[in-house]
Amino acid sequence: MSISHVPSSAQSGDLLAAVTARQLTEDLRGAMREVQQAVGVLAYRTRAAHEAKVWTTLGYSSWTEYAQQEFAISRAHAYRLIHFARMASALTAGVAAAGVWAPDDEPIGNRILDFGVPERTLREVHGEADALAAEVTRRLREAHQEGPVDSDAVETIVQGVVREARRRSISRTAVPAPPLVPADAPGVDRAPLLADHLSTIAEQLGTAILEVAPAYLSDSQAAEIIEATFGQRIGADTALAARRYAITSDQRALTGTLR
Predict the structure, then answer these.
(1) pTM surpassing 0.90?
(2) Residue 183 lies in a domain
(3) What is the pLDDT of residues 6-20, one digit of tens each?
(4) 80 within domain boundaries
(5) Are residues 168 and 197 in the same domain?
(6) CA 194, 173, 241, 199: dihedral to nearest 10 degrees?
(7) 98: helix, coil or strand?
(8) Do residues 43 and 123 lie in contact, with contact meaning Cβ atoms separated by under 8 Å?
(9) What are the CA-CA distances from residue 28 to residues 31, 32, 89, 156 (Å)?
(10) What's the rounded Cα separation, in Å, for the pair 85 and 50?
(11) Distance, CA of 62 to CA of 218 (rounded, Å)
(12) Fewer CB within 10 Å: C terminus or N terminus of the chain?
């Protein structure tokens, strides 16, 4: 007679933890997908509202005033939404122009699709919308010559085009950290130079952190992501300060950390 193996309490606990971890992971994956889809909806509705000039119908003098009064967002944020919507629309148009793929076998039409590209990244390259859309079209057609193009291939190509554009933009605008002056240089006060050097480093660090912890997250939410991503390699206080500095350009954000 065979005897069934009965898991020990420790083994049962491990199994339960594994099941819970898997479920939480699936929940997280679903939540991320919902956020990505919401970004596409945001872009579509922002574009529609701006093109329809809804602010004039509602009695506002400008898009800025409309956004401030209706949604309590700043002028800069209001126009960031427009830049984002235009970029997302252009990339969707680029995919549609290739004519090699359609979601759910339906024409793309006037929709704005989610390509898994962060909103902030799209805004940063909005000035190249037409050129990037044309590049997406070209690469999709080339890929189609090698075989069928699915949604994963579309995402990979769009993300690659945007990522390359962002790198070019950063290389054009990056400000090199000022060189440190030797300690024995005569008649030179090194303190201001060192402060500028640290500020430049902090801005670069903060910009990198915004890629994994976007500006719309609270400090506590960002801290959790920073800890999970970087572990002990970057102190949470320093990382959050650099993130706030990258968002605001206010050097007071660095007080007590890098300055």
Answers:
(1) no
(2) no
(3) 445 555 556 556 777
(4) yes
(5) no
(6) 10
(7) helix
(8) no
(9) 5, 6, 27, 21
(10) 10
(11) 30
(12) N
